[in-house]
Amino acid sequence: MASSPSPPFHVAIVGCGITGLVLAIGLQARGVSFTLYERASGISEFGAGIGLSPNAEVAMELLDPALHAAFKEAITPNGLDYFQWIDGFATNEQIFQLYLGKDGFQGGRRSEILAAWAKLLNQEHAQFNKELVAVTDNANGPVLLKFADGTNATADVVIGADGVWSRTRSLLYGDAYRASYSHHYCFRTVVPMDLSIEALGKDRSFTRFMYNGPGAHAITYPVAKGTMLNVLVVIGDSKPWHPDITGHAVAGVESSAGDNMATTATLEQRNVPSHDNGVANRQTTGRGNRKDAEAAFVSWLPAAKAIIGLFPERPDRWAIFDMLENPVPSYSKGRVALAGDAAHASGPHLGAGAAFGIEDALALATILEAVDTNHAAGKDVHVTAALDIYNKVRYDRTQWLIKASREAVDLFQWKDPERGQNWPGFGDAITALFHKIWKYDLEGMKKEMLGLYEASTV
Ligand SMILES: Cc1cc2nc3c(=O)[nH]c(=O)nc-3n(C[C@H](O)[C@H](O)[C@H](O)COP(=O)(O)OP(=O)(O)OC[C@H]3O[C@@H](n4cnc5c(N)ncnc54)[C@H](O)[C@@H]3O)c2cc1C
């Protein structure tokens, strides 16, 4: 006798940043039905750089080998397979270096990586100009999504991948569970390689470096196939966050100072009005002043000061917000789950926020593919169990990253008197932090999830 057809099963993904997009591609590769809803008018990211660590590469490969291949096409190789730390304050000498693995932790422009991934997505599955404003998880019916344009949609599962100022999160748990200022801000830019070579020299322009000293640090690495240098400067700040809203202030959307016109257009395109005015503190960018960076680096050596000279006079200033103070109790509630920054926004100091979003996507694609929609208990019970397992497996590791990122910035900015300028201790601490991120057993994670799911369905 022919078996009866499976009941329809549909996933709604809210937000098409890195997490939402790679989840979509992972579901597409598994034949799981989904729709991606994004409030902006298209798939876009500004042009500053991002590095994706070895664990992110494994997760991409397991989500869909095409995703990994597209990433490798879009990135810029490091000159050396080592991350190098320089004492920018007292000696201009190398403090420590850490092996990245063969071709590991490579970076590229976000816009180029996202564009390469976007080509893999069947665009029929994506809807733009769809800002989520409400989610209702009704018993005995599908989950209902409402959008700011007055339209509705339904799904069997909703994944909120809508970033640090997640509307899905506040709908699930209330506005008290929101990101708070970590008392660090940053300036970012991307500069032509000839300017970098002139200011920093060839040796310091074509591979990944971090410059350390008291109260600040700087990271540089090549992007755009070696034609540009990505620069990120992070500065400690004891004051509350007050953005200068005369600049391009956009909630939850990143921008890059000194970037090209195309990037500015993209930024403005994404600066869509939000209906979420009830959430405070959404203004995370503002117009900054290079003088602030010059003041933070005033006693540093010329080699490090030359990095600050690469910024325009009025760069955009980014506040670093994270979920340390107000963590959500769980990444799932009924048939709705949170992923990426929506679940566990962390500081950028270990270069792993997006990587952990990609790991989340792998976890979700694995468990959603496994959901048994034919089971006697009903698909809703199974979806809830599956999301509960997702939370169990992801929660501790991702919450650890938030704390570890704060620990790392203290280390990089010599705030920890024990390890600050004690280079062997500095090296040991860095190695332990990065290896915990990079060497995670993602096959083991998948196995654990599927084992838990099987046990829950007996
Ligand atoms: C300075 C800096 C440097 C970093 N460097 C690195 C690095 O080198 N490596 C790394 O791994 N990570 C890095 N990170 C972290 C990384 O950028 C983030 O973790 C990652 O981009 C988060 O992706 P996401 O998709 O979860 O969220 P987002 O990128 O914020 O995407 C959320 C999406 O949801 C959409 N959206 C929001 N609200 C709604 C709504 N109501 N309805 C519909 N759509 C909505 C938004 O428009 C957006 O497209 C860095 C972060 C910063 C700030």
What do these coordinates show?
The protein has 458 residues and is an alpha/beta fold. It folds into 2 domains: 10-76 and 106-179 and 325-456, FAD/NAD(P)-binding domain, CATH 3.50.50; 180-321, D-Amino Acid Oxidase, Chain A, domain 2. The chain is built from 14 helices and 19 strands. It has helices at 18-30, 54-63, 65-74, 110-118, 167-173, 193-200, 261-270, 290-296, 302-308, 341-344, 353-370, 379-412, 423-438, 442-456; strands at residues 10-14, 33-37, 49-52, 82-87, 94-99, 106-109, 126-127, 132-137, 143-147, 152-155, 157-160, 180-192, 209-213, 216-223, 228-236, 285-287, 316-322, 332-333, 336-338. The strands form 4 sheets. An 8-stranded mixed β-sheet has the order 5-4-13-14-15-12-17-16, with helices on both faces. Strands 7-2-1-11-19-18 form a 6-stranded mixed β-sheet, with helices on both faces. A hairpin with a 4-residue loop joins strand 9 (143-147) and strand 10. Helix 1 (18-30) packs parallel to helix 11 and helix 3 (65-74) packs antiparallel against helix 4. The protein is globular. Flavin-adenine dinucleotide binds next to helix 1, strand 3, strand 12 and helix 11.
Secondary structure: elements and pairs:
Layout: E1 10-14, H1 18-30, E2 33-37, E3 49-52, H2 54-63, H3 65-74, E4 82-87, E5 94-99, E6 106-109, H4 110-118, E7 126-127, E8 132-137, E9 143-147, E10 152-155, E11 157-160, H5 167-173, E12 180-192, H6 193-200, E13 209-213, E14 216-223, E15 228-236, H7 261-270, E16 285-287, H8 290-296, H9 302-308, E17 316-322, E18 332-333, E19 336-338, H10 341-344, H11 353-370, H12 379-412, H13 423-438, H14 442-456
Parallel strand pairs: 1-2, 1-11, 2-7, 4-13, 11-19
Antiparallel strand pairs: 3-6, 4-5, 8-9, 9-10, 12-15, 12-17, 13-14, 14-15, 16-17, 18-19
Bound molecules: flavin-adenine dinucleotide.
